[in-house]
Amino acid sequence: MKRALVSVSDKTGLVEFVKGLVDCGYEIISTGGTKKALEEAGLNPIGISDVTGFSEIMDGRVKTLHPKVHGALLCVRDNPEHVKQLQELGIEYIDLICVNLYPFKETVQKKGVTHEEIIENIDIGGPSMLRSASKNYKSITVVCDPKDYDKVLKEIQENGDTCPVTREFLAAKVFRHTARYDAMIADYLTKKTGEEFPESLTITFDKVQDLRYGENPHQKAAFYKGMNPQYSLANATQLHGKELSYNNIQDGNAAIEILKDFEGQCAAVGLKHMNPCGVGIGENIEAAWDKAYEADPVSIFGGIVALNDTVEKGLAEKLSKIFLEIIIAPDFTPEALEILTRKKNIRLMKLDTTLSVNTSLKYTNVNDGLLVQEMDMHQIKEEDLRCVTNRKPTPEEIKQLLFGWKVVKHVKSNAIVLVKDDMTIGVGAGQMNRVGSAKIAIEEAGEKAKGSVMASDAFFPMPDTVEEAIKAGVTAIIQPGGSIRDQDSIDVCNEHGIAMVYTGIRHFKH
Length: 510
Prior knowledge:
The protein has helices spanning 14-23, 32-40, 48-52, 67-74, 80-88, 104-108, 115-120, 125-135, 149-159, 164-193, 246-260, 285-295, 313-320, 334-340, 395-408, 434-445, 464-472, 486-496, and strands spanning 3-7, 27-30, 46-47, 96-99, 141-143, 206-211, 221-225, 237-240, 266-272, 275-282, 303-307, 324-329, 347-350, 361-366, 369-374, 386-387, 416-420, 423-428, 453-456, 476-479, 499-502. With 510 residues, it is α/β, with parallel strands linked by helices. The chain has a six-stranded mixed β-sheet. Helix 13 links the parallel strand 11 (303-307) and strand 12. It is elongated.
């Protein structure tokens, strides 16, 4: 008679799976809560202590860590010496194990959880059994995911056992499963000790979905989420529309990152190709959208819209008149949904964009490497600004300068943003020189540039950008300062009565 050892935390589909194994002639060995669940379902598993001849000790911390378990799992069955030792020790084979682990991730994320409770949810016996059995996958079927129950049971019912290809597939899955589990424990303890950049880094992500393709149709792609996806499209609910694409997810993420800097204000972001084409704030979300749209009604075509308040009927009617790829918002009223869902392909994503989330690290992959840095969460207030010109900015100019500074942080470097009346009116992004970005922003703003303010993500290496701003009618400038030729730009501003303030910090975004 074949034997299966079953010990699971997640009991989804457990009873049906075990009943199927019993019907196929398997003897069931089980532990603790799993054994109790099977008994309540009318099954009669053998207790692990009856197999080992040793009672569980230390509140169940030690129960499967025993030679009669691991010997049965690690025995190479075509090695006569291994088989002889097994027989001499009275150890019987275990042909299948079904094990999943203590809910460490769920425990860490519980509100009010104690460190002691987290430590108790570090599984030791489970990973040990999974690894032992998976090392011996030529002889043993190892199941760690309830999603595989049907496949495994079907093969056993049809062939008497699983096929070698399936056992290898399941073993690979087990090692991913245990690696993920260990990575979560390492992450928790590393953060607890305050180690920011340890000597080795293992991060884990769970697949959300396969994507139709990547940036281009010839590239394969998939979407994965990390351990804390609250402020992430991975945690959004899609209410309508086609599946998100690779580029949709990139753009959507960039849009919600901008909203983070407008906590407590009604803000609307229009975005294309990872850069904002329009950002506006207003007394309500519809007014904010009006400004974001007016900022660049051409570029928003086919773009992404992110909002930090509920979409109601009036706003939905305006949004429905434009071709948009995605609308992201905390919620949509039934009337708004009825209007927007008339458009077959638009993606409507419900996500709490009002969350105050401090994601501490940013990961960027390079060839055979990973760059890790703190997220750029820096924000400034009026008292942080240092005026370096003879003319000081007016209160209204300061308000617009601070708004522009929030936006320019999210524009690809070299970045220049023109702002007026709580909205962007010109965005210059990603140029190889700063004056080139300024010219793009000024051209986009047109006549609106008169009376606007300018934000620059980094200092001016020469006064040419300031000179272009003055010609366009800009009245105030915000920039980090720090160039060896700062005085040249200051002198030009003073000559034309322009106010300029320094932040003392830059916002490069590559």
